[in-house]
Design a protein that fits this description.
elongated, mainly alpha, 173 residues
Length: 173
């Protein structure tokens, strides 16, 4: 039961994370590029202020649930859950070390004047955004694969084994 709850939590948090980043990459970034710079900067600064808590929480829950799932499983399931956890951790690190510092600069530009090289800095923000979107989406796909794996079966009877608990082999205590 604990494994199923962790699977559900990891899938939910990682799906929300990948969906939010995917929506941003597919819809917000092209919109940012289509509007005047002052509008983009004002909206971007406000959006990042609103997203700060929500996105960090999604990354924390996704990473924690995936790594806990890895700790409680064995074999290929452990590797898949662990990889998903590390990928969402990578999304967090890219965000904190790449996007967040640029967001701070964008806030300053929104109330002042952007520097001459603002277009290059905004392109770098978009590169970081693409990277964190890719890592979150890949983590989500891995968790879907883990969830859809064939359940463990008892070789003698062909029935589902208790060790398979939710399609994921559990670690023996």
């Amino acid at each position: 039961m604990r494994i199923r709850l962790l699977q559900g939590l990891a899938l939910l948090a990682t799906g929300l994370l990948a969906g939010a980043f995917g929506y941003g990459a597919a819809n917000l970034v092209p919109t940012f590029d289509a509007v005047p710079l002052d509008m983009r900067l004002s909206f971007h600064a406000e959006l990042m202020r609103m997203n700060g808590i929500t996105m960090q929480a999604a990354m924390a829950v996704s990473t924690s649930a995936s790594l806990a799932l890895a700790a409680l499983t064995r074999g290929r399931a452990r590797a898949i859950a662990g990889a998903a956890g590390l990928l969402t951790l990578a999304s967090f690190l890219v965000t904190r070390l790449g996007n967040v510092p640029i967001n701070g600069r964008i806030k300053e530009w929104a109330v002042g004047t952007p520097p001459a090289d603002h277009a290059e800095i905004l392109r770098r923000w978009e590169l970081f955004n693409d990277l964190r979107t890719f890592t979150a989406l890949t983590a989500f796909v891995l968790l879907i694969v883990l969830f859809l794996r064939r359940p463990a079966t008892d070789s003698g009877t062909g029935t589902e084994s208790a060790a398979g608990a939710g399609n994921v082999p559990v670690r023996a205590s």
